């Protein structure tokens, strides 16, 4: 009897507050645009002229910085944001797709079209939202171009191969396209990805005039976005989150330091079957059968700025070990020490993939729109918590995830939406 009463009052409440999308539009829930500027280090706005980002601080929410998951790489981190799952759970453990038995390796760009790399059981928000009646789209966002349990994102654009990352006119066109999706086609949730400032950060290093210039271009683009939102009459209907996947650091080179070159310490040919190295500060090695201890011993004290883990030893709080794609030996360089395998061919001046506790790996979080407080400075939090925030803003009942609203709900103007959302989840 008591139980019945409780359920009854809950359903009365939800009848009033629940999303009514299937009946008559989206009720009290606003649309959401998630924007990622790849490789935007948390402090990049401090030495650049960024009037639009500065204005957004007054008009919305800024986090001091946010912490990406370990591995601070593009696909793993973007997929944590869109799934709310740790990397060991969502399984996208690298930018490259690989098979350590067949020795197959695919580039990041090729991987963006391969469902088998992304579809490991953790459902990204596009799909969860679509299953609850929303309309979603991905514009170049990593993971948006494949199928999950056979289901594609409603609208998805893939970045063409060798596409220039820094064309400001095209950035504006892309924003216009997305505004059209919201206003003319009534999309509820769109993710929009930009390849900068990552590209410049790699090419010239983060502490250069070129990087400052691209931040100012990004800032103008954010200004363009603010105008476009007004022009399309979306000011009171659209929430916007601007974030990124990792930071960037200057690579340490000779003669400043002794670079890490693993072939100095072990014979790849006789001891290893497969490796994923020469890709920033994180790498993995699969030794030949019976050679695991030898590889480990050879690397353990090889270089003062190299850390080696057996898979079983990877710290629990990396949330990394519990996935079959993680190889028996994991290697990490100290900040700025890239992991070179056989030769030092690396020409990039900046890189990432380093420990997510390093300040240079931290990234940005900004948000504005009808549901966000104004002039609100948030303490730092983990990027994994963006997922439940997005679900709450959209009125979507979240899939199982590892994030929490505890760190973000105080950014919102109204706790009431939260309560109706909880009831909605209970009733489901
Ligand atoms: C990896 O390659 C091996 C050997 O070709 C194959 O048997 C296995 O199914 C592949 N694994 C995956 C996950 O594709
Ligand atoms: C997704 O599924 C559709 C329909 O089955 C198919 O045409 C498309 O090629 C699939 N896309 C990928 C990336 O596998
Ligand atoms: C930039 O993009 C615009 C619009 O797509 C195009 O017309 C222009 O040629 C591009 N500029 C460069 C330098 O690629
Ligand atoms: C590299 O190792 C040396 C020796 O342990 C240490 O003093 C230095 O701080 C390390 N560099 C970084 C960036 O951690
Ligand atoms: C993350 O969430 C998934 C799904 O709820 C759960 O299975 C997993 O144990 C969680 N991971 C941690 C470290 O709590
Ligand atoms: Zn990236």
Automatic annotation (TrEMBL):
Keywords: Signal. InterPro entries: Alkaline_phosphatase_core_sf (IPR017850), Phosphodiest/P_Trfase (IPR002591). SUPFAM superfamilies: Alkaline phosphatase-like (SSF53649). Residues 1-17 form the signal peptide. Pfam families: Phosphodiest. This is Ectonucleotide pyrophosphatase/phosphodiesterase family member 7-like. It comes from Denticeps clupeoides (denticle herring).
